[in-house]
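Module 6 notes. Inverse folding takes a fixed backbone as the condition and produces residue identities as the prediction. Think of it as a translation problem where the source language is geometry and the target language is the twenty amino acids. Below is one complete input and output pair. Work through it position by position during the lab.
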């Protein structure tokens, strides 16, 4: 990517991300999540067109950005049906797929108090584990939110593997943090993983050269 392309790509990525959030919310309001419809191989093309039309009306600049490379709304729908924004290894339009726990509302001090378990995975095992973690988050068995990196090449990534973040609201609540770790073990996350506080991330602290910034490890 050239320096001139960077702002265009950033706007396109933001447009896809915002539309994805709106699409998921609207589809859920109409009965079921985006991923549920895709996994059932359901035809939701008419609802998709209606939602994209509303998105284009409300956010014309963002809607235009999704088509800067010649992509049409029909193209986006077809890619979604093949796993775009549903499965991480099939997603190339956004850097992350995010799933919040139903009913989740962030508190004012949550950013500083929150933290996350980091699950690094090879490509072959990522989609299956993501589905398990995503579903467990919706069921209320894990933290308030989870997200997974995708196949879109991220220039800020420090690892070639995929990674799932499982967020908890309070890093100092060790009992809650470890209960969530146990739930992850039940889902098949048996390897030792690390837990990082958001405050380290905000300070730009990462594990390098033998330096570890994980707060818990289990």
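Target side of the pair, the amino acids:
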């Amino acid at each position: 990517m050239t320096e001139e392309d960077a702002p265009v790509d950033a706007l396109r990525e933001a447009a896809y991300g915002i539309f994805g959030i709106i699409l998921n919310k609207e589809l859920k309001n109409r009965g079921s999540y985006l991923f549920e419809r895709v996994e059932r191989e359901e035809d939701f093309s008419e609802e998709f067109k209606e939602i994209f039309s509303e998105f284009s009306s409300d956010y014309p600049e963002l809607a235009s950005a999704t088509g800067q490379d010649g992509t049409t709304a029909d193209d986006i729908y077809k890619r979604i049906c093949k796993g775009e924004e549903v499965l991480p290894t099939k997603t190339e339009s956004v850097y992350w797929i995010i799933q919040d726990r139903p009913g989740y509302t962030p508190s004012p001090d949550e950013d500083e108090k929150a933290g996350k378990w980091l699950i690094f995975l090879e490509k072959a095992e990522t989609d299956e584990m993501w589905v398990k973690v995503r579903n467990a988050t919706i069921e209320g068995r894990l933290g308030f939110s989870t997200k997974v990196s995708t196949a879109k090449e991220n220039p800020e990534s420090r690892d070639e593997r995929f990674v799932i973040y499982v967020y908890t609201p309070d890093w100092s609540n060790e009992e809650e943090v470890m209960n969530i770790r146990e739930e992850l073990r039940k889902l098949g996350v048996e390897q030792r993983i690390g837990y990082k506080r958001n405050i380290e991330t905000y300070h730009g602290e990462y594990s390098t050269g033998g330096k570890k910034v994980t707060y818990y490890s289990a």
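Reference fact for the lab report: Residues 5-86 form one domain.
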